[in-house]
């Protein structure tokens, strides 16, 4: 991963070229991205600014995962990676709880044998 990112608009808090070397990479389920980053990634600029990093999303072929590549100074990259992993886990658990509630509601709606 020693190549520089393709992105042209490098934020001012990311120092090129030293902050663009050795990025942190994490993989997230594609279905969680909208919950994490908003529709069409609308929250990405805010997350980048607050975290003092630059994010790049990459599609992994033949997988339901996306790579989030985090560029920045060493400590900011680690902090942003931890935050993004925590967000992904929270959204995954929230989605799982929602599915369990849906299953319970559907079971509650099932007709008893006397109603058939």
From TrEMBL:
Residues 11-95 form the KH-like RNA-binding domain. Gene3D superfamilies: K Homology domain, type 1. The keyword Cytoplasm applies. It is found in: Cytoplasm. CDD domains: FILIA_N_like. It comes from the Eukaryota. One of its GO terms (cellular component) is cytoplasm. GO terms for molecular function: mRNA binding. Keywords: Cytoplasm, Developmental protein, RNA-binding. Transmembrane segments: none annotated. GO terms for biological process: regulation of gene expression. InterPro entries: KH_dom_type_1_sf (IPR036612), MOEP19_KH-like (IPR031952). Involved in the maintenance of embryonic stem (ES) cell pluripotency. Dispensable for self-renewal of pluripotent ES cells and establishment of germ cells. Associates with specific target mRNAs. Belongs to the KHDC1 family. This is Embryonal stem cell-specific gene 1 protein. The lineage of its organism: Eukaryota, Metazoa, Chordata, Craniata, Vertebrata. The gene is LOC102732136.
